[in-house]
Design a protein that fits this description.
The chain has 19 helices and 5 strands. It is mainly alpha-helical and about 450 residues long. The chain has 3 domains: about 130 residues, HUPs (Rossmann fold, 3-Layer(aba) Sandwich); about 120 residues, Serine Threonine Protein Phosphatase 5, Tetratricopeptide repeat (Alpha Horseshoe); about 150 residues, DNA Cyclobutane Dipyrimidine Photolyase, subunit A, domain 3 (Orthogonal Bundle), CATH 1.10.579. Pfam families: DNA_photolyase, FAD_binding_7. Belongs to the DNA photolyase family.
Length: about 450
């Protein structure tokens, strides 16, 4: 009698470079894929609307890929620990395999589940697959976490190089009668009333095959100009791989080695490749920080920033920012791009975040929550980490007095107004909701409270 292996997919919705999947196949028993939609476990943050849209389509693609190779994806909804145990019972499973995750609540769930299943006699194994370096392996000389990116990345690069990506299995032995699961449509991940996802459908094609095609297109066509044009939102020089990495349709090992191979040698191509790979390093640093500070989305990393005197919220200002109706063209263009496509160019993300926290003096947590709901690439680490970086409250934070002037940023990075013309052609005719110079002075005055609290 067989004792099937369960592969618990999480933010690794792919078949290539999937150590847990390959280990399950090597066990020599039928393999069942499982995805759990967990909105109920303590500390688990429910997905935002744009993320739910992406998840629906990525699960559709993963399910088809598994069926093509002989296996099956079971969908269940509920608290992950109890759901996994239920599927183990239904399948008569003898092993459970997963790739590790690094949020505090997620790690607690996984550790308790691993201990309990092993006590029941199951083989349970977890693997490193979502980061180039495990967060606990990159430490200062005294063994503490890093708080600044440059020495963090230097130390990481001094570790053994990231392993080569693993191949996708050609065949996956499945169960003749796998456990029953939910119908994906019943999860209602897609918006219907209203259907606001038209722009997402125009911009994106989720799934592993599309992710690998995008990686190849970027490396072949855009990597050479990445360093020179990456800050220009209309240049099309960015990789657009962030949602692919967020959902694990590509592993960072796959992206890393493809970038190293393509950018080898000297000249502009090598410089661009190095710059691009350092962005993978920034992603690693965000997860490193979350691992050691699990409350990154709700609490200031810099405790002294707790003294910052956020004024009473003006809801009309927050709404104007969310809708791209501030009268500040670059800000409005970015916020409208975000609403329409579920994405925003990274340079513009910094500008819009700075405007919210330092010109409107609105708590960074409200901006982080909006991005969490509207970005297809919002993950547990990078979203909060980058908001705290801009706000001045986080690790390696941009100095508080560095306040992005959106007018100067537009002059420098969108000098012909192509990006603004595409997304917010009417914004210049609007009266700005605040005076940039005056609000900059107010922000710096407010920061004096933080300095005095040190």
């Amino acid at each position: 009698m067989s004792s099937p292996s369960i592969v618990w997919f999480r933010d690794d919705l792919r078949l290539a470079d999937h150590p847990a999947l390959l280990a399950a196949i090597d066990r020599g028993e039928p393999v069942v894929g499982l995805y759990v939609l967990d909105d109920e476990s303590d500390g688990i943050r429910p997905l935002g609307g744009a993320a739910r849209w992406w998840l629906h389509h990525s699960l559709t693609a993963l399910s088809a890929d598994l069926r093509e190779r002989g296996s099956h994806l079971v969908l269940r909804r509920g608290p992950a620990a109890s759901v996994v145990r239920s599927v183990v019972t239904d399948a008569g499973a003898g092993g459970v395999f997963w790739n590790r995750r690094y949020g505090g609540a997620e790690r607690a769930i996984d550790a308790e589940l691993k201990e309990g299943l092993r006590a029941d006699g199951l083989e349970v194994r977890s693997f490193a697959a979502s980061l180039l370096f495990e967060p606990w392996t990159v430490t200062t000389g005294s063994g503490t976490p890093f708080s600044v990116f440059t020495p963090f990345w230097r130390a990481a690069r001094n570790l053994p190089a990231p392993r080569e990506p693993l191949p996708a299995p050609a065949e996956i032995p499945g169960m003749p009668s796998p456990p029953t699961g939910d119908d994906l449509a019943d999860w209602e991940l897609l918006p219907t009333k209203p259907d606001w996802a038209g722009g997402l459908r125009e911009r994106w094609e989720p799934g592993e095959a599309a992710a690998r095609a995008r990686l190849r297109t970027f490396l072949d066509d855009d990597l050479g100009s990445y360093d020179a044009a990456r800050d220009e939102p209309s240049a099309g020089a960015t990789s657009l791989l962030s949602p692919r990495l967020r959902w694990g349709e590509l592993s960072p090992h796959t992206v890393w080695h493809a970038g190293v191979e393509t950018g080898g040698g000297a000249g502009a191509g090598a410089t661009s490749a190095s710059r691009f790979l350092s962005e993978l390093g920034w992603r690693e640093f965000a997860w490193h920080t979350l691992f050691h500070f699990p409350d990154l989305a709700t609490k200031n990393w810099r405790k002294g920033f707790d003294a910052f005197p956020w004024p009473p919220l003006r809801p009309e200002h927050l709404t104007a920012w969310e809708r791209g109706e501030t009268g500040i063209p670059l800000v409005d263009a970015g916020m409208r791009e975000l609403w329409h496509t579920g994405y925003m160019h990274n340079r513009v993300r910094m500008v819009t975040a700075s405007f919210l926290t330092k010109n409107l003096l609105i708590d960074w947590r409200l901006g982080e929550q909006w991005f969490w709901d509207t970005l297809v690439d919002a993950d547990g680490a990078s979203n909060a980490f980058n908001w705290q970086w801009v706000a001045g409250s986080g690790a390696d934070a941009s100095p508080y007095f560095r306040i992005f002037n959106p007018e100067r940023q537009a002059e420098k990075f969108d000098p012909r107004g192509v990006y603004i013309g595409q997304w917010a052609p009417d914004s210049a005719a609007r009266e700005p909701i605040v005076d940039l110079a005056a609000t900059r002075r107010e922000a710096l005055a407010a920061y004096e409270h933080v300095k005095r609290a040190r």
